[in-house]
Amino acid sequence: MMKTHRVAAWTAIGLIVVAVAACESNKPAAEGAKPTVDSAQPAAGTKHAPPIQKDEVPDGHWYCDMGTVHYSQPEQGNGTCPLCKMKLVKK
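^ that's the sequence the OP posted. Answer follows.
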């Protein structure tokens, strides 16, 4: 009987450790931290989650302008956002 309680206790502790680790990995970025855009992003483009501001898009890049920018790419490509199909704008 005592062995069963120990196994149950260790199982509960293991589940708690896994749950805490999962919560830690899903924490949002530090408050005030801004996502950055690499000016050498791939030609396929980048999905920005969370969206960034227009002034954070590198000069010469194409971006989807929905108030904030959820997608940008360094080349025009077909000229449409692959996420929402809106027309891309050149900065």
